[in-house]
Write a structure and sequence with these properties.
Length: 383
Amino acid sequence: MSNMVATTAVLYGAVYPAAAYVLFRLVRFYLVERGDPWFWGDFGLGAPKSHRIIHFVLKCGALIFANIPNDARRVLIGALKKIPGMSDMSALDFDFENYDRIMEAPTVARGAKAIGMKRLSEWLYRPRHFSTIESEYTHPYCRPILYIPGIKIKPFYPARCAEFEWIARIEAATSAIRDEFLKVSETNPTAVGTYLVPEDMKTTVQGWRTFFLVNPQGKQMEENQKMVPKTWEILNSIPGFIPSNMTMFSVLSPGAEIASHAGLTNAAVRIHLPIIVPEPAKSVIRVGPKVRTWEQGKILAFNDAYDHQVWNFGTQTRVVLFFDVWHPDLTKEDLEVILKSWANIKDSMGKVADQYERMSKKMIEADECEKDDWLITEKPKST
């Protein structure tokens, strides 16, 4: 099939020279992205053909939407939303214009030029191509939803790294933050619900519970913020804190695993403040090719744009405060551009954010687990 496509491209280019370049790009897109195993899930290389085709078709959709004029795109999306069953598709609400506008930031523009990216939305349909380019901005394991070039990436940051001078101050607040979380777990334990996967809003991750201050799509969970006012105040005092990105207490039960996945963007650094880690050597996180463990009261900073995975091999619960800050490579001038576009992108997710909140509440209301079922802070007694 690949040879036939390549031969057709050569013949077509010979007859119609003006179309040769466009056809070459399409063929290259097909050859590189058709066999991309990134989204094949647990099936991996053994994924059925239908599964592989579906994900390639999704890339083709992104290719079409990203390359038609903005006005035409709006008309097409409006027409698609009138089709029964498609009006609630969150992908149709994606803000291509503001994503591409981020390239006006100087650091991003330089990075895009270095890897041959003309528009940021190219990432949506050519992720395998760009992620496998050798550069200080890319890595085959770095596959976020929204990639932003020009930012040097690494899986983990060293403890007390110079880029984040506020770390010691936040670590000193560990006890106060832990006390607020424990109070919530005592007075309102059902608020700490099993994690609902945002992509389908049906699947849950057993053994992983969350108490959102900001939900995955950026909705401010104001009632929850009021339950932990000191924590929310501390977060907002951190330079570069991103209040529109997912922020939460993340609770991992004994024996639980969070499967391999990649985060929203490489432009943010994910921060974990471990507030309950009774068995440090048994709470493990892999980010790209590197592995670390948590230590109570010690910040763990990493780039969750990398493929990453989490395990609790212990017999007690692990709890971390989880939030994002802007990447230190981004300058004040960069952020002036990015913040405006980022706010618009998040606003475009508003309908989905509300739906996620409703589904999460419904799931929490149906949850019959008591606090003692998930917050285990003592070793089981031997018999």
